[in-house]
Amino acid sequence: MTNAVKNLTHGRELIAFRIGDQEFCVNIMSVREIRGWTPATPMPHAPSYVLGVINLRGVVLPIVDMSLRLGMKPVEPTVRHVIIVAQVGPKVVGLLVDAVSDILTVTDENMQPTPDVANEAAKAYARGILAIEGRMICLLELEALFPHTESEAA
Amino acid sequence: MDMNEIKEIFFQECEEQLAELESGLLKLNDGDRDPETVNAVFRAVHSIKGGAGAFGLDDLVSFAHVFETTLDCVRSNKLEPTQDVLKVMLKSADVLADLTNAARDGGSVDEARSRTLIRELEALAHGEVPAAAEAPAPKPVAAAPAPVVVEKPPVNDEGFQPIPFSFGDFDEEGADHYVPTVQVSFKPKKDLYAKGNEAVLLLRDVSRLGEMSVYCDMDALPTLDKMNPEEAYFSWKISVTTEKGEDGVRSVFEFAEWDCDLDIQTIEEDVVSEASGDEELPMQPVPFDLSMLDDGGAAAADEPAIIESDAAAAVAAAETATKVAQVASRAAENKAAAAASAASAAQANQAAAAGQTIRVDLDRVDRLINLVGELVINQAMLSQSVVENDNNGTSSINMGLEELQQLTREIQDSVMAIRAQPVKPVFQRMARTVREIADITGKSVRLITEGENTEVDKTVIDKLAEPLTHMIRNAVDHGLEMPEKREALGKNPEGTVRLTAKHRSGRIVIELADDGAGINREKVRQKAIDNDLIAADANLSDEEIDNLIFHAGFSTADKVSDLSGRGVGMDVVKRSIQALGGRISISSKPGQGSVFTMSLPLTLAVLDGMVVTVAGQTLVVPLTAIVETLQPEASAIHSFGASQRLISIRNSFCPLVDVGKILNFRATQANPIEGVALLVESEGGGQRALMVDAIQGQRQVVIKSLEANYTHVPGIAAATILGDGRVALILDVDAVVAASRGQSLKQDISLAATG
Hints:
The complex is a heterodimer. By secondary structure, chain A is an alpha+beta fold. Chain A has five helices and eleven strands, in the order H-E-E-E-E-E-H-E-E-E-E-H-E-E-H-H. Chain A has helices spanning 2-10, 66-69, 120-125, 142-145, 150-153; strands at 12-19, 22-27, 31-36, 50-56, 59-65, 82-88, 91-97, 99-106, 111-112, 126-132, 135-140. Mean pLDDT of chain A is 81; it is low at 1-9 and 150-154. Chain B is α+β, with helices and mostly antiparallel strands. Chain B contains 22 helices and 22 strands. A six-stranded mixed sheet of chain B has the order 14-18-19-17-16-15. A five-stranded mixed sheet of chain B has the order 6-8-9-11-10. In chain B, strand 12 and strand 13 form a beta hairpin. In chain B, helix 1 runs antiparallel to helix 4, helix 3 (58-75) packs antiparallel against helix 4 (83-105) and helix 14 runs parallel beside helix 15. The longest helix of chain B is centred in the middle third of the chain and has 34 residues, at 321-354. Chain A binds chain B through residues 38-47, 50, 52-55, 57-62, 64, 88, 91-93, 95, 145-147, 149, 152-153, and chain B through 370, 373-374, 377, 617-618, 663-665, 704-716, 719, 721, 725-729, 745, 747-755.
């Protein structure tokens, strides 16, 4: 806990991952675990980016193709793909990405605002971009990607 | 353990006592006159009162006290428990429950109602038998000169009060006013000490009531070498002169009553002298300070003392002959009561030996159930991988695995049994609902419950109460006619509502039948047309009309009453039953009443399913929905319209539904001849043949929520995890059947937004 508090004051820790040739990152506090790809059971009437559900130690976990969700081409999952199990609001979601690349500690100074070129949809979930060692990493807001839907479901 | 925890336990016990109370009263109502039933009822109220007293819940105590008093009249046969009496008592039980709830959760109770009931109860206790011993203690005539013990002596460290004595006033009082002298014979059993009561404390409390004399009988005391230190050997004869009378003395022994032989009677002076004359040891006045006993129980037992006070002789002067007669009859009653209490104590002991229970937090049980569910899945996965990697099938690993499989199945069954509870508490709550509605509507209703010991999972029970209440309200408010009308129709003016629970093929079936007017189909039809539910010229079967009442916004009552008729009735019931994985149907005969039948799964945690393959996917179909499976032949398939197909089964035609198409697993309909048809029966009647590609087998599956991390999927009820560790979806048969009727599975908007 002291670590987390320190992180809050001295900067945040982020997990960076790769999709295609782009790099993204999410707050490490929302990541529960990282695991390998296992075949998912497809869901009827599901949006195309929901690959299906898998069994995560007794919990039914939906798997999202992040590439498709972010508007890129769908991935062909292989054993080398990685699932980031993340907490989004009250729910747990598995994010299918190509690979986890880094763990970063950043402060607000490292953060740059999302440039204007991005379209509205992208701006909704991109919280900013980071320039680290010549790479460009886009910080994603998971809550914006998967908003709460309880009210609609009920 | 802090006070709140103890209080919580008290309230939990209260709930049990209230249930006991109600079932006892209902038994009495049905004509049961077993003294043990009366005792059980009395004990329940008594325990609530006792516990409430300990927590200072005054409202509860005072109401329970009045209730108890009246019950005691019944117990001692002074009051015949007629229907009218029991009606008041049942209402009192309801108020007692309300007061208990109010004490637990805060909130208020209908004070006017409880006051009325208190008056009614008191009237019952007094009105019929004014001289009842349970009536408030005889009031002292005028301002009786305070008895000799007046000044409160200083209390010592242990809280004991030295009792001052005076020998001077023997004959002074009593000549003018009657202060009853109560003779108590008190013989503790060892249970009394085991429960932390102490004779000396009781004696001290008695001494506070008035002047008393105590004689300790030590005859039973064996020699030291034969003495069992935990046994109770002493008995006391106490005679106390008190204005509080017999009741006051009895209340001292209130909590010890069950653990001792107690005989309390009011006596006249001459009776006293006779009684003392009978004693072998004459009483000697010995100045005595009770504080010498305060070394504790051991001291009290080791140094028995002959306690004597001046009170013995300070009795009332002779009274009228009637009084003597009264005393005699009272004595007889008391003996009967003592015998009854002894019997009930014995009974209680038996019950304690018969079934022992522990209280466990529900969360812990749920956790255990979840873990066992995981265990079952893991065991299945393990067996599967062993079988895959094993070439000779007779290895010892295989043998061991089979045993493991049996064990896990047994563990699962036993764990599920922990949560299984009889439906009795819910049914009892319904009894109350019926009473209240009958009162408000002015109808006379009799609720008959059957099969209340049918067990079902706790989660199901908890969710059962609400729809049942709705339905009972409907049955009484809309179903039953007014008494006059019933009489005119030649029916018993008292309407009957019958609530039945039974197990049927792995489900619990709850039936609610009334003998009222039945559904007025014309009215329902007209209402449905008015509300645009059906077309004016729609051709509906009786069954279909009956099912209209499950539509949202439907109510046939002419006026909206407080109870039901707001139009949020049966559709809510239907939805909550469906949410439990259940079905509800109605059958009604005009003039004879309606029967609602609910069929619910026994548990929400596991399900017997048929594992099938559809378009390369594995699905589980709940076994309860399947009527039969068959292999369609080409000659039995008939095309109907553009895309519909029918299958003829024993000369009746049944629509064929391709599950893969409905669930969007494939774009075109599969060839029925290559697959297997599952004949299913959906709620609202009507059979459908579901087409699947193949049947893999039948197994019990652990239900996993899809909603927890995903969202509701139309056509899918839940998910489960199969032996290979993969997730399989459980088909929602009713939704699929509904979709096949043309209402397509509606695409949830939320899907687009959720992961």
